[in-house]
Task: inverse folding
C-alpha cells in the first residue's frame, strides 16, 4: 500500500501530466487554426497618387480604397512618400506594434496601439474578416522648424493612423487593407505640450475619436489627415 507521502507525490505527478496534455492540446489547436496574429511585412501606396510616381500595376486595390473613403474615390494623397514599407505586428492580447521605413529618415518612434475584430466585409467579391486598429508614434518637426538652440523644439506631436485590414481565412498569410495617418500637433514652438485648461490632457487630444473622413485638402485642420494609402502585406514566416 502506498504511503500518504507517495500518494501525494503521485497526485502531483498526475496533475502536472494533465496540465502538460492540456497545454499541448491548446498549442496544437492554435497551430492548426489560422488567425491574423503575427508579424507582417508589406508596402502601402496612395489610393490616389500625385504626379511624382505612379504605383506599379496590381498594387492598389480600388475596392479597398472605396471602403476607406466611404464609397467614393479617395482625394489625392499629401503623404510625403509614394510608398511606405512597413512591419505591423498583431499580438494575441489586442496590442498592435508597427514600424515603417520612414523611421530611417525622420526618426519617428515605433507605433503602439490596439486592434480588434470588426465584422465581415466584401472586398473584390469575397467575404473576408475586417480588423480595425489605431496606433500612435511620436513625430518630429521638419528640420527647418527646429530651433537649433532648443533641442526640445524637435518634438511636434504624434501621428495616429486608422489601420484597417481584410483577412481571408482561406489565404491566411496575405492581407490587404488601408491606412489613414492623422497628424496631431500638440506642442508649441518650444516643444512643450499645450494643455486643456484645468485638465491633464493635451488641448488637441490624440486619444479622442478619429475623424470619420480623411481630407488631405484641409491642411489647416488639427488633426490633419495626410491621405489614404492601401497596402498588401504578407505574414513573416518562421523558416
Result:
Amino acid at each position: 500500500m502506498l504511503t500518504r507521502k507517495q500518494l501525494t507525490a503521485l497526485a502531483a505527478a498526475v496533475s502536472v501530466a494533465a496540465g502538460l496534455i492540456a497545454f499541448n492540446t491548446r498549442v496544437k489547436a492554435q497551430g492548426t487554426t489560422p488567425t491574423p496574429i503575427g508579424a507582417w511585412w508589406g508596402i502601402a501606396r496612395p489610393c490616389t497618387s500625385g504626379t511624382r510616381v505612379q504605383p506599379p500595376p496590381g498594387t492598389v486595390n480600388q475596392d479597398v480604397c472605396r471602403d476607406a473613403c466611404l464609397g467614393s474615390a479617395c482625394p489625392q494623397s499629401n503623404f510625403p512618400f509614394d510608398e511606405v514599407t512597413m512591419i505591423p505586428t498583431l499580438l494575441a492580447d489586442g496590442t498592435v506594434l508597427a514600424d515603417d521605413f520612414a523611421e530611417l529618415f525622420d526618426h519617428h518612434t515605433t507605433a503602439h496601439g490596439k486592434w480588434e475584430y470588426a465584422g465581415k466585409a466584401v472586398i473584390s467579391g469575397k467575404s473576408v474578416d475586417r480588423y480595425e486598429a489605431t496606433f500612435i508614434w511620436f513625430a518630429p518637426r521638419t528640420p527647418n522648424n527646429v530651433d537649433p538652440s532648443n533641442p526640445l523644439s524637435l518634438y511636434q506631436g504624434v501621428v495616429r493612423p486608422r489601420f484597417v485590414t481584410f483577412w481571408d481565412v482561406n489565404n491566411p498569410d496575405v492581407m490587404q487593407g488601408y491606412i489613414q495617418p492623422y497628424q496631431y500637433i500638440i506642442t508649441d514652438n518650444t516643444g512643450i505640450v499645450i494643455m486643456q485648461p484645468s485638465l491633464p490632457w493635451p488641448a488637441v487630444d490624440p486619444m479622442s475619436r478619429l475623424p470619420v473622413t480623411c481630407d488631405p485638402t484641409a491642411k489647416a485642420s488639427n488633426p490633419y489627415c495626410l491621405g489614404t494609402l492601401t497596402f498588401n502585406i504578407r505574414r513573416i514566416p518562421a523558416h
Summary: Confidence is low (pLDDT under 50) at residues 16-29. Residues 1-31 form one domain. The beta strands are 38-46, 84-90, 95-100, 111-123, 126-140, 155-167, 174-185, 224-225, 229-235.
